[in-house]
Amino acid sequence: MSPAIESARPISGFDLIIASQAYRSRSTVERKVRSVIDPLIKLLDISGELLITHSIGGEMISEILKIAFTDINAFPTLASDLIYHMQEAFHEDGPHYLLSEPSTYKFSYNSSPEGVSSELFGLEVERRIESLLYYAQVTNEEIFRLKANNERMSNLRNVLQKTRELSFENEFFSIKNTTIV
Predict the structure, then answer these.
(1) Domain hosting residue 136, numbered range
(2) Which of 18, 135, 162, 163 holds its CA 20 to 30 A away from the CA of 62?
(3) What is the value of pTM for the model shown?
(4) Is 121 in contact with 68 (CB distance < 8 Å)?
(5) Virtual torsion, Cα 65, 66, 72, 75, nearest 10 deg
(6) Which residue stretches of the chain are H helix?
(7) DSSP state for residue 42 in the 8-state scheme
(8) What does the alpha-carbon distance between residue 142 and residue 132 come to, in Å, rounded to a whole number?
(9) What is the DSSP string of 135-165?
(10) What would the pLDDT profile of 24-70 be if each residue is shown by its tens digit?
């Protein structure tokens, strides 16, 4: 490690931290909290706030993923699961945090940017597949298995070709440090 990094003081005292897709969707609740959320909370100032957002797929995305994969649940954790786990942990600790109710929002993948000739060359469906696999955080091994299964790939391409837009559901919630010094 660089001497500058080794001698650096810990960074903390942030008013706002935004964590977007900061953990693997299929990690356990405990791992998400222990490895990502807890360290971020420790970086907050006394009145700082952590905003967390992650994909939960949604009904449309889950149904499309079932065409390609019968053995994965790409979005097993909801914000309410994380909040419950943190409330249990915070109950035992000294610092006090206010956890918001989770909210849901959607974003849609309509098509590639203007001027990209993806439809002309049949790449639009491939871009939708890439987008789907990216947001579902499908592993390389799972992608290789999918590509090796011609029937599943063909079925996935057919569905995505008929689907006008991919609508991804996401959640966000916040954790506010309310510790009194």
Answers:
(1) 3-177
(2) 18
(3) 0.79
(4) no
(5) 50
(6) 3-7, 29-32, 38-41, 59-68, 79-92, 123-135, 140-148, 150-162
(7) T
(8) 13
(9) HTT--HHHHHHHHH-HHHHHHHHHHHHH-S-
(10) 888 999 999 999 999 999 899 989 999 999 999 999 999 999 999 99
Residue 83 CB neighbours (<10 A): 19
Paired residues of 175 in beta bridges: 50, 99
**CATH classification at residue 56:** 3.40.50
Instruction: Identify the H or E element spanning 17.
Output: strand 14-20
Identify how many contiguous H helices and E strands the chain contains and give both numbers.
8, 5
Classified as helix, coil or strand, 125 is helix
The CA distance from 107 to 170, in Å, is: 8
Number of domains in the chain: 1
Among 2, 38, 13, CA closest to 23: 38
